[in-house]
Amino acid sequence: MCSEFVGHRPPVLPDRNLGMELVRATEAASIRGFKYVGKGDKNAADGAAVDAMRQFLNTVEFNGTIVIGEGEKDNAPMLFNGERVGTGNGPKVDIAVDPIDGTSLTAAGRQNALSVIAVSDAGTMLDASEVFYMDKLVAGPEGIGVVDIRKPIAENIRAIAKAGGKAIEDVVVAVLDRPRHEQLINDIRATGAGTRLLLDGDVAGGIQAARYGSRIDLCVGIGGSPEGIVTTCAVKGLGGIVQGILKPRDETERQRALAAGLKLDHVYEMDEMVASNNTLFVATGVTDGGLVRGVRRKGPVILTHSVVIRGVSGTIRYVEAEHVAERWL
């Protein structure tokens, strides 16, 4: 790694091998969750994925602290905020996990359910767990210095169209399909731009917005604050832009946020959400989606499809794996 850092001592983590080790954990979570695709039981899917991910994480040579966990958000039994994972040896890291981003998608058999792990240097990942929601804007490299979450959506659409050299009618904006976004969706369509309405899983939508050559140009709207941090770890490696504003649901949540030192009515830029470029984002598909394919069973093997995005090198790798089915089922 030393050649990738100039003029100062490099941090110890995360290295290339760590990314591949973490894929084992997301593969395991996806395979276990796959059993419940379309079965209508999101809690069973989530529980199976949590157990599998935790088991594999504890074999990895690192000293990890979960900053964004599954337990506190979804009342799952493991992988809670503050839990220590890994062997305790090797690099110290902050970790964000979502064994299944899109449990409702999994239960319904819909697209874009992922198993996700994001990692950064220890002490660099914002703990925004006191506030459930965050208003987010994500775009690719062409959006840097061009779009801003403080501007009206119509202005941002015109700006991204000009920066990308395309007509407004060709711009596509991803938004979670929620009643709270009714006016936002109307405003997007009023410009002539199109929408990609996400049933769930705005991590995948954000990454698609930041990727070169993607059909999605922007991802906007209010979603989970943990997902904003996870997305930032990925976009660090894609060269794009993420901005976020925390949105407390009530006065109690607002007071908890202030007590935790979080900034309200403030635009969090990428380096405030993840104060390191030395990041890893790893995801394996549970169901098919625009980012990765879902788990498949073909005779004696289970097929998985994963992506690894490394922030420090700006590298995206796809990993296809075959697993002997009888050892999993």
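Second entry:
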Amino acid sequence: MLGENYWDQCLEKLESELPDREISTWIRPLRAVESADQLTLLAPNRMVLERVRSDFLPKIQRVLSKLAGYDVAVNLAVGSATESSRETPPAAAPIATVATVAEPLAGHTFGRLDPRYTLDSFIEGKSNSQARAAGQQVASSPGHVYNPLLIYGESGLGKTHLMHSIGNAVLARSPSARIVYVGAEQWLNQFVSSIRFGRVAEFKNFYRSADALLIDDIHFIAGKEQSQEEFFHTFNALIDGRKQIVLTCDRYPRELDALDDRLKSRFTWGLSVPIEPPEFETRIAILLSKADSMGIRLPEDVAILVAQRIRSNVRELEGALHRLSASARLTGTAVTVEFARSCLRDMLASYDRAVTLDNIKRTVAGYYNIRLSDLSSPRRTRSLARPRQVAMALAKELTQHSYPEIGSAFDKDHTTVMHACRKIAELRDIDERLREDFENLQRVLTN
């Protein structure tokens, strides 16, 4: 008898031999179903099936046969594992292709929505509150408010988490809804495949019949004219049908030079919301929440230490947490501040090296187009005083230096630094331009 364990081993082998793009686009969407001495691999749609059959099936069969020790019969079919568990797949000769349905049935999702990603598990802070609120509105009334919803920001800040949360929430409210989640690169590869195999009509029907289309990293199609043309028409068809579109992008769409102007315009029809790097309090909350979900006892003082030193994005925080958990489990040691400093020594050191007082001064001077010496000048004109205060506030937030040490770097005393930090904290709440400057500089310095 064959089972999913053989498929898991086969997948590991294929991952070492094939490019990540091909694995994520064509191989991972397959689902394995056991049937006597053969294995049926279920593809989410006919495009994936045709591509696997033409380019990957012989390799898959060789790997499976080697693992099993005998020739394995491999079936391909279009369908879902849930559907196939109710009836045995039809027997077929090795390397046969059986198409049972043309596309996923209503209520099924294409692409894997991660059930761990929910709106409740999405930690809210100043950096992402607008995006979460918009996601909640979309999930409550898909197709009717904020359509499309575009979430933009740098990698690792929670855009994909929020997108999955919206999809899961829509599905929970309407189990029959057809949710299509896909990465833009995967969408592009499938479009190319549909042209290659003469299945463009099926491709169009598949995506244009979705109740909600969720596309990650839409910036990937910028500069690809034919793909942008196809997505333009898919976008219009879904909007006209009052179907929800949710997109993520690494920046505000109008900043994408190679993106078609018509798409730039349409992407801003609904609502575009940013997700910024999480502030200190949110970083602590994220660490404690993720530790709870992983069953890790994380003392608050350890969370504070990690949140103070790792500021760039959520993914880096998760990486630190996983390392702490693995090291504690392997050594049988409790997670303490001393243990965390030792375990994360190289990681924390790399962050400390990345953000220095000199680097902050050079970056701020360049950003405001002033001379480096102006930051230490006794002159108090507004054009120099404000950048100086911003630089001091950044130094306090992004380094471990004390007020006197920061003051020395700017030829000022510690009370001047304390005043600068308080002033910038106040202005960030009321001055949108300064808040934007501060966040831009944070991103430059921590990435």
